[in-house]
Amino acid sequence: MAEEVCSATYERKALVLPLNFMAATTSPSAYSRLSAIASQRSVHEAFGWLHLHQQQIMGWQEELVAVPAPPFHEHTRANWLLKFFQAAGLQGASIDEEGNCLGVYPGAEHRQSTVLISAHIDTVFPPDTPIAPRIAGTRLYAPGACDNGAGIVGMIAILHSLRHAGIEPEHNILFVGNVGEEGEGNLRGIRHIYNQKMWRTTIGSHLVLDGAGHEVAVTQALGSRRYLVTLTGSGGHSWTDAARPNPIVVLSRVITRLSKLDLSGTPRTTLNVGTIEGGSAVNSIPEQAAARFDVRSTAPEQIIRLEVELYRAVEDSVIEANRKSSFPLTYTIEIIGDRPAGSLAKESSLHHAIEAVDRHLGIRSEMRVASTDANIPLSLAVPAVSIGAGGEGGGIHTRAEWYDAHGRELGLRRALLLLLMMAGY
Ligand SMILES: [Zn+2]
Q1: Which residues constitute the domain of residue 324?
Q2: Looking at the structure, do residues 369 and 334 belong to the same domain, yes or no?
Q3: Residue 93 C-alpha to ligand 1 middle, in angstroms?
Q4: Same-domain status, 329 and 306
Q5: Gap from CA of 373 to ligand 1 centroid (Å)
Q6: Distance 246 CA to ligand 1 centre (A)
């Protein structure tokens, strides 16, 4: 859901610092490797392509946002992206069983090792959401314009610039437009990629493009678990059956108990009740009540602790309600989301590469914690980072969402350099 990434990436303006500010934290070997890459003529040509095609990239973005991609119904947009992958000659360009669009940009040395670049193609918007993209100056107004219109067209632009400049990296680059990043998609697209043996054993690192911005790098995966709690009873008439347990009342006790837990302190941990539903008429004891809970923490053990609290609160409240009743309530607790935690080691070559690219471009990435597609590789100890694709955005996950291409070029240069550091060139 890159909720956090997408809302975070546009908050800050570029923080341009003098080069010597970064000198102390940049690995000399990473920086000299980057300088060698950035000085190559072909890389300049790729930059040139990005510079000259800003208009075209915006045109693709306007076309893309009009192709709906609600959760679990991303196929039309996957097919839209497939045309680009096929036209660019990616090897094995296709749509997999989960609905991801993918293809390989072959490396020069035909090595087994692969670098993955991905952008999620799903949106949070239901199928009936009216979409009428509007461009004003450098700004595109449309639901999903930034999240993840920016990431998807950023990925396409990088592919074109590589092709145009004839760049042959050492390792293969796997391009993926993945499904299932938002909400209850539960990272199913990227999870599927890593469940395939051929990818799990060959992917050496992973770059996620999500939303706008060029000053944030999500290197820590915020873990989360989501639960649907459902209480079911016999129901009845509000007057004649008044003694029977009421699922709404019992669910309210569960929520009250959980809301009294002390979650202050570090590591930051949160518990939210996001939806509640139940009942059918004002003069009926409801047959059912249900609520959805979201638990988050950077520490896996805190998530487990809260899960235990949730189970106990439900069990105790139901047992208490059933004590004097011959119309017992039953309950189910269903896990509807599970995003594993993990983090990128500061000593990893990918971390050094991010700092080296920063120094080269005269920017500084703020390392952040969020829940993104990078959770999956990070939890599997595959070096991974989620970054914005440049520009700015706002109104994320609302119908008033917008994307501003001002500054996109810098963001795409950053992504391209990072990708070449990962893939070797
Ligand atoms: Zn996103």
Answers
A1: 223-339
A2: no
A3: 23
A4: yes
A5: 9
A6: 39
In the three-class reduction of DSSP (H, G, I as helix; E, B as strand; rest coil), residue 254 is classed as: helix
Structure tokens at 402: 């917008």
The two beta strands, 114-120 and 203-209, are: parallel
For residue 27, report the distance from its CA to the centre of ligand 1, in Å: 30
pLDDT of residue 83: 97
* Ligand 1 centroid – CA 362 distance (Å): 26
State the distance from the centre of ligand 1 to the C-alpha of 210, rounded, in angstroms. Answer: 5
How close is the Cα of 284 to the center of ligand 1, in Å?
Answer: 42
Do residues 157 and 177 share a domain? Answer: yes
- At 328, which CATH number? 3.30.70.360
Which of 226, 256, 335, 246 lies closest to 287 in space, CA to CA? 246
Instruction: Identify the pLDDT of residue 36.
Output: 96
Q: Looking at residue 110, what is its pLDDT?
A: 65
Q: What is the pLDDT of residue 16?
A: 37
Per residue in 15-28, pLDDT (tens digit) is 333 333 344 467 88
**Sign of the alpha-carbon dihedral angle for 59, 65, 68, 74:** positive
173 and 162 share a domain?
yes
Residue 48 sits in the same domain as residue 114:
yes
Instruction: Let me know whether 110 and 55 are in one domain.
Output: yes
Distances (CA, A) of 398 to 143, 151, 153, 284: 6, 17, 20, 36
Q: Among 314, 339, 364, which residue terminates a domain?
A: 339
Do 205 and 249 sit in the same domain of this protein? no
pLDDT in tens, 284-323: 999 999 999 999 987 778 898 999 999 999 999 999 999 9
* Burial (Cβ within 10 Å: 0-12, 13-18, ≥19) of residue 266: exposed
Q: Residue 214: how many CB atoms within 10 A of its CB?
A: 29
Ligand 1 mean position, distance from CA 182 (Å): 7
- For ligand 1, the distance from its centroid to the CA atom of residue 4, given in whole angstroms, is 9
For residue 87, what is the domain's CATH number?
3.40.630.10
Mean pLDDT by 10 residues, the chain (425 residues): 40 35 66 96 98 97 96 97 97 97 90 91 92 93 97 98 96 97 91 96 97 95 94 96 96 98 86 96 97 89 92 97 94 93 91 96 94 94 97 94 97 98 95
Same domain, 313 and 358: no
Please give the distance, rounded to the nearest whole angstrom, from the Cα atom of residue 3 to the centre of ligand 1: 6
